[in-house]
Write a structure and sequence with these properties.
This protein folds into two domains: 1-30; 32-366, Rossmann fold (3-Layer(aba) Sandwich). It has helices spanning 2-29, 79-86, 132-150, 152-160, 170-177, 184-188, 191-211, 229-235, 243-267, 277-286, 335-347, 358-366; strands spanning 33-37, 108-110, 163-167, 217-220, 272-275, 301-302, 317-318, 353-354. The chain is α/β, with parallel strands linked by helices. It contains twelve helices and eight strands. It starts with a helix and ends with a helix. The radius of gyration is 21 Å and the shape is globular. The chain binds 2-acetamido-2-deoxy-beta-D-glucopyranose (2 copies). One 2-acetamido-2-deoxy-beta-D-glucopyranose is lined by residues 347, 349-350, 356-357, 359-360.
């Protein structure tokens, strides 16, 4: 009995050792991925919060591998999932997920929360959401948890070598400045002054990310939020984009690129990479047929004009083939559209990715 017991222990020990060595080896070649931002990149954190900004019921997730809602604002995969796929990693788990423990922490984490913006007062109507300063605090807490697992030095390396994605800004317009006529922010600031203020706050957020160890950060500009079905439903007679909202995006995006240029030259390294989400979207919005869509104006799931009113719920109109629609719900692209966007992030020219695309980043970083 004793002999059998000890040989059993011995083989378990060896098996355990092999598994440990195997996971250390694969982690060394892999690259962690961290995600910050709003509903465009939330993988399900809001499922764990008392908020109205959620995507945890049918038909969200209808084309996800499990065919179930996950909290992603998509019919299937979202942009972070598709980036993980491209860099050969498992999708990141939401930071609030109880499953995010042990070795799974080494894959990275998703801190994003639907409804948030650059400003603290953006998205207050959604109640309990994880504002960006809180997301950054969680990133610090994450690093403490990982340190307990692999030590401080290895944790620092994991974070320095990681890829980071941050997507912010759209809600500061649609869910703040333009949420209601005569909103507090629109009475406080002219549009050009508001944009300057947003950029000055965004600078602090990006600097904080750098202080926390991020060294490769994809920063997406805003999409053409004046062209989403929700805005067409309110502002558009013939399907034309909202001129005022397009003006806002037109002011914000170039100043964000300027901010990124300034930060990179202050630091002396290409830490921040601008993704031109505006042009990536406009390609398929202005010529949907060229990308295999029947429409870029009508959401697949919704109600009212352009299916752009209210939320996507079990009671909404639902299109049978989601791949034919650029927009899944009144605000968010379909998985098919997300794939087009991520393809440009990977291989796009400098018009789309500045100063370089993700395939160039991957090639550069694999050499160090
Ligand atoms: C937003 O809230 C955080 C945490 O409460 C605070 O530290 C920060 O200064 C606030 N930002 C602004 C611009 O008020
Ligand atoms: C982007 O990626 C492609 C490879 O897929 C490469 O040929 C091209 O030069 C890259 N462009 C930039 C600006 O990095």
């Amino acid at each position: 009995m004793a002999a059998a017991g000890s040989s059993g222990f011995g083989s378990w020990f060896i098996l355990g050792l092999l598994i440990t060595l195997g996971s250390v080896a694969s982690w060394a070649e892999a690259r962690a991925f961290f995600v910050f931002g709003d509903s465009l990149v939330d993988n399900g954190n809001n499922d764990y919060l008392a908020t109205t900004a959620r995507a945890d019921s049918y038909p969200y997730g209808i084309d996800y591998p499990t065919r179930r809602p996950t909290g992603r604002f998509s019919n299937g995969l979202n942009i972070p999932d598709l980036i993980s796929e491209q860099i050969g990693m498992e999708p990141t788990l939401p930071y609030l997920s109880p499953a995010l423990t042990g070795d799974r922490l080494l894959v990275g984490a998703n801190f994003a929360s639907a409804g948030i913006g650059i400003l603290n007062d953006t998205g207050i109507q959604f109640l309990n959401i994880i504002r960006i300063t809180k997301q950054l605090e969680y990133f610090q807490q994450y690093q403490q948890r990982v340190s307990a697992l692999i030590g401080a030095e290895q944790t620092q390396r994991l974070v320095n070598e990681a890829l980071v994605l941050i997507t912010l800004g759209g809600n500061d317009f649609v869910n703040n400045y333009y949420l209601v006529p005569f909103s507090a922010r629109s009475r406080q600031f002219s549009l050009p002054d508001y944009v300057v203020y947003l950029i000055s706050e965004y600078r602090k957020i990006l600097q904080r990310l750098y202080e926390l160890g991020a060294r490769r950060v994809l920063v997406t500009g805003t999409g053409p939020f004046g062209c989403v079905p929700a805005e067409l439903a309110i502002h558009s007679r013939n399907g034309e984009c909202s001129v005022e909202l397009e003006r806002a995006a037109g002011l914000f995006n170039p100043q964000l690129v300027q901010l990124i240029n300034n930060l990179n030259s202050e630091i002396g390294s290409d830490i921040f990479v601008a993704a031109n989400a505006f042009d990536m979207h406009m390609d398929f919005i202005s010529n949907p047929q060229a990308y295999g869509f029947v429409t870029s104006k009508i959401a697949c799931c919704g109600q009212g004009p352009y299916n752009g009113i209210g939320l996507c719920t079990i009671a909404s109109n639902l299109c049978p083939n989601r791949d034919l629609y650029a927009f899944w719900d009144p605000f968010h692209p379909s998985e098919k559209a997300n794939r087009i966007i991520v393809q440009q992030i990977m291989t796009g020219s400098t018009q789309y990715m500045h100063p370089m695309n993700l395939s160039t980043i991957m090639a550069l970083d694999s050499r160090v």
